[in-house]
Amino acid sequence: MPTSRLEDYEVMYTIGTGSYGTCKKVRRRTDGKVLVWKEMDYGTMSEAEKSMLVSEVNLLRELKHQHIVRYYDRIIDRSNTTIYIVMEYCEGGDLASLISRCRRERRYLEEDLIWKLFFQICLALKECHNRRDGKTFLHRDLKPANVFLDANKDVKLGDFGLARVLAHDTSFAKTFVGTPYYMSPEQMNNMSYNEKSDIWSLGCLIYELCSLSPPFLAANQKQLAVRVREGKYRRVPFQYSDELNSVIGSMLNITDDRRPDIETLLQTPQLASRLREYNAKNDKAEAPRRRSREDAGDRRRSREKEDLLKQREDALVVRECALEDKEKEVEAREKNLAVREKIVEDKLARAESLMKQYTELAVAKANRALADFDINGDDTCTGRLSPRLTDNNKALHYLRVREGKKGRGCRSPL
Predict the structure, then answer these.
(1) Radius of gyration of the chain (CA)
(2) Counting CB atoms within 10 angstroms of each CB, which of 136, 187, 323, 401 has the fewest?
């Protein structure tokens, strides 16, 4: 995704200015979407403040929930050492403005609206406290001014500048940060704290929605710390139910172990019924998307099967080609063997023919010699030949007898 530039946005007007910087309403030129950016000069910041700024940007990028202010972009102007964090614009303002307006108009908020805001803040905190990756985000500055409302008066939790990441459930933060009116006793006492500190701040916030003022007030921070440690406060106005007063009391317990966690809060009857409606609504809205994902999954699996079959077909083609090559090789070998066998057979036939010719020549020679012997009429050394001897045998026998007599000193008649 290409990096955005300042020219990609049109500044409409300034929403507010504070120690953190300036918030301005802007319009994105590409599609006309109205957003807000937080403009801060990081050149004058300390290293700790820069670290908090980086932490806020990283957290906003990770936190994606319908009740958390959505992060869109960041722009860094290095020439002016200014960073612009582009976020969702909340048309309804913040809860601090809503409380101030009610005080001016001398009216209280409807209890049903308070339960609605309470429930949506709980959902946002659940997203922070119970991350799927096992980490826990502490907001550490939960107060009316950091809870915004959109056009439908739905909650958008924002300003995570003081947020901290805890790696696991037994981790504890120790930094002294936050707004004093909403700080927990353990923070006031400079003790380690965890997500139960956010629950205390939530209790203070809901109490202020009811009473239009924080539960603990004092002229200075020292007196405020004493009152927070004591944990004594007035009941919310009696027009609000005992159930609402009781759940606020559970969150404002000075012992953090006795405060409910976010999951326990959502089991409160009023919140549990809203949670069921919320889940049912989400399930109904999610059904088409789930079916779409399932269809996409089916298509993906079908493509994977087709690819697998194609791979197998290609492998079979390769094997068939290899077999054809081997068959051709075997056929060539067989032809070669046939040629060699023919050559051997020809050689054997020739050898047999030669042997036959040699034998015939030898017999003919022997017969000639015998004939010559008979003509001379010398039978001195031959003796009588057996009548059972064939002509060939006679010739051979004659030769042996002749050679034998030579050995005994018999002279040849020739």
Answers:
(1) 54
(2) 323
